[in-house]
Amino acid sequence: MTLREFYEKIGVDPTNVLQRFGGSEAMLGKFVKKFLADGTFVQLTEAMEKKDWENVFRAAHTLKGLSGNFDFLKVYDLSAKIVERYRANDFDAIPPLFDELKARYDETVKYLTEFCSEN
Questions:
Q1: Between helices 53-69 and 73-87, what is the axis angle to 10°?
Q2: Is residue 20 a contact partner of residue 9, using CB atoms and an 8 Å limit?
């Protein structure tokens, strides 16, 4: 799978993110692989299990930034919604958003793992 095919599978046109990486697919590919080693989603999951809303906020905010850097737009959007709900003290809205985020995150990781195994 090529980098472009990976982005197509997650429903993103890679044009914008490639521009941020100087148009270099090789450079973007090198950095995007590091997403798999990041522990932020694990931290978010643990905080959700404990209903530790402050750490849910911190992890969601970090994941929002990380996913935004790579144009993982579905992960970004849902992370941003969790951050917004925290700021609005609407904690009851967070678990369903997290469930949806987990599905999109897992999908992204699945295709990214496939990309990494072939490159």
A1: 150
A2: no
- Indicate the pTM of the whole model: 0.94
What is the helix, strand, coil percentage profile of the chain, to 5? 80, 0, 20
**Range of 61's domain?**
3-113
Does any domain span residue 69? yes
Query: How does pLDDT run along the chain (119 residues), one tens digit per residue?
Result: 999 999 999 999 999 999 999 999 999 999 999 999 999 999 999 999 999 999 999 999 999 999 999 999 999 999 999 999 999 999 999 999 999 999 999 999 999 999 999 88
Q: Residue 89: which region, alpha, beta or left (left: phi > 0; alpha: psi -120 to 50)?
A: left
What's the structural domain count of the chain? 1
Written as six digits, the tokens of 83 are 């951050």
DSSP 3-34: HHHHHHHTT--THHHHHHTTT-HHHHHHHHGG
